[in-house]
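From the methods appendix. Each design record in this collection lists the tokenized structure first, followed by the designed amino acid sequence. Records were kept in a plain field format so they could be parsed without special tools. The example shown here is representative of the layout used throughout.

RECORD:
FOLD TOKENS (291 positions):
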């Protein structure tokens, strides 16, 4: 596999970064997880914009323009002759000294890995997920905005570990005030009185690209949808629930904290949106050039 390291197409075994890189020492950096379907990259401009916005919030100055970064990503896919891929784009503060301050970091490190996509097991989609609310709260906006897709995922990892210890593959993270924020690597939707609801990003969750696509699809399919604040109670009593994310796409949730959601089976609105999303993801995107 070829990795793009700071603009150089490098065999993966030679793609190494410094032990002084602040991405490693402090989680000081940003990233994106992106997918290519059938020779096209889904919502590339949106992912690139989110990356640059995250970097801006952290005052990391990415040393190439967004369009140039997009070209580098496409070039890496072409070099690996990949048409379907899970792409990891990372920008770190770069190598510095052992001090926390970024002032001694020379220049950001960036790299692009275009890996094979590892899909969730099919039974997750057929049977739906059983998930759990955890005691780890989502990072407060005032501490580290969850809108920043930073390399510091410890908040999410602690929540994931808690869920796994309870036999669940995903966790619901609440805000400090007890509102539903999101899951560790996915956004959450519920269907309540026939309306599709997902928490507003101002509450403290990532502005998911899949979440946006599903909100657009809902509008197209004439399903009432809104960004609204809700609690665990609303998830327990919802007609349906599902998660959205680049890797998961749209995955049904059928049990939360031991309570069946709706019928306890993947619901019809979830299935409709899942199909619509699959069709959308496979029908649009930035073409990968031939080598
Ligand atoms: N929330 C978190 C915390 C995430 O890390 C992700 C994606 N990895 C998502 C939501 C889903 O975002 P997207 O649809 O852009 O993949």
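DESIGN:
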């Amino acid at each position: 596999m070829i990795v793009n390291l700071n603009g150089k197409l490098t065999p993966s075994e030679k793609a190494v970064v410094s032990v002084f890189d602040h991405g490693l020492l402090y989680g000081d950096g940003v990233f994106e997880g992106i997918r290519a379907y059938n020779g096209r990259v889904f919502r590339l401009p949106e992912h690139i914009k989110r990356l640059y916005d995250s970097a801006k919030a952290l005052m990391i100055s990415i040393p190439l323009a967004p369009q140039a970064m997009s070209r580098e990503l496409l070039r890496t896919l072409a070099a690996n002759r990949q048409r379907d891929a899970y792409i990891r784009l990372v920008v770190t503060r770069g190598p510095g000294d052992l001090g926390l301050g970024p002032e001694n970091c020379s220049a950001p490190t960036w790299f692009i890995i275009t890996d094979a996509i590892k899909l969730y097991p099919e039974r997750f989609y057929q049977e739906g997920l059983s998930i759990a609310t955890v005691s780890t709260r989502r990072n407060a906006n005032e501490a580290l905005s969850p809108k920043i897709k930073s390399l510091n995922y410890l908040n999410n990892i602690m929540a994931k570990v808690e869920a796994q210890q309870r036999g669940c593959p995903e966790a619901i993270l609440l805000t400090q005030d007890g509102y539903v924020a999101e899951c560790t690597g996915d956004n959450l939707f519920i269907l309540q009185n026939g309306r599709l609801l997902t928490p507003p990003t101002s509450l403290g969750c990532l502005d998911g690209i899949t979440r946006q696509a599903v909100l657009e699809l809902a509008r197209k399919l004439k399903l009432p949808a809104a960004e609204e604040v809700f609690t665990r109670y609303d998830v327990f009593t919802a007609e349906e629930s599902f998660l959205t994310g680049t890797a998961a796409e749209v995955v049904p949730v059928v049990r939360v904290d031991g309570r069946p959601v709706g019928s306890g089976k993947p619901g019809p609105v979830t299935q409709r949106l899942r199909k619509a999303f699959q069709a959308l993801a496979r029908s649009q995107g930035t073409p990968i050039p031939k080598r």
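APPENDIX NOTE: Residues 138 and 175 are 5 Å apart (CA to CA).
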